[in-house]
Automatic annotation (TrEMBL):
The keyword Aminoacyl-tRNA synthetase does not apply. The lineage of its organism: Bacteria, Bacillati, Bacillota, Bacilli, Bacillales. InterPro entries: Peptidase_M42 (IPR008007), Peptidase_M42_aminopept (IPR051464). One of its GO terms (molecular function) is hydrolase activity. It comes from the Bacteria. Keywords: Hydrolase, Metal-binding. This is M20/M25/M40 family metallo-hydrolase. PANTHER family: AMINOPEPTIDASE, AMINOPEPTIDASE YPDE-RELATED.
Length: 166
């Protein structure tokens, strides 16, 4: 593995109880008190003829960047700076992505961005079919591309200020 300098402290957190109130994300964010956060999650898609949903994303098309997800108290409108940061790095690294508005879906980012004084947060999510069933499926290439995107963003964090993101 190649050694790279990193400006800052990187903290990874795995949370629990997302679907019953985003509880783990709230506690972890409060404890860590990050300057900014990236939430990694999966998201249901409706890209088959028998789909009951209307989420405009599909597997095999790259990670999903939810500009808006959820509604009411369980929702999040991604900060324009974070949206620009994620999409710019995706374009610079030739990583396909799906920008989406998902009013019926939510993730831990809905809790993270509201902790303390507010946390600049964004999400990189991965589409999946047949959610919460024995035959749930996803394209592993979407995960690889999303990880590559996250690594590119994190490794270049010293340059964000000069790029007028944050």
């Amino acid at each position: 593995m190649e050694h790279r300098d990193f400006s800052g402290t990187l903290v990874g957190v795995v949370t629990v109880q997302e679907e019953v109130g985003l509880r783990g994300a709230k506690v972890a964010t409060y404890k860590v008190n990050p300057d900014y956060a990236f939430v990694i999650d999966t998201i249901p898609c409706a890209d088959t003829p028998d789909s009951l949903g209307t989420l405009p994303v599909g597997i095999g098309k790259g990670p999903v960047i939810p500009a808006l997800a959820g509604s009411s108290i369980r929702g999040n409108i991604m900060a324009p700076q974070m949206k620009k940061l994620i999409t710019t790095y995706a374009e610079q690294t030739n990583i396909p992505y799906q920008l989406a508005v998902l009013p019926g879906a939510s993730s831990d980012v809905s809790a993270v961005h509201l902790e303390r004084e507010g946390v600049l947060a964004g999400a990189i999510t991965f589409p999946r079919r047949y959610s919460h069933s024995p035959v749930e499926m996803a394209d592993l290439n979407d995960f690889v591309k999303g990880l590559d995107l996250l690594k590119a963003i994190i490794e270049d964090n010293e340059n964000w200020g000069s790029m007028d993101f944050i």
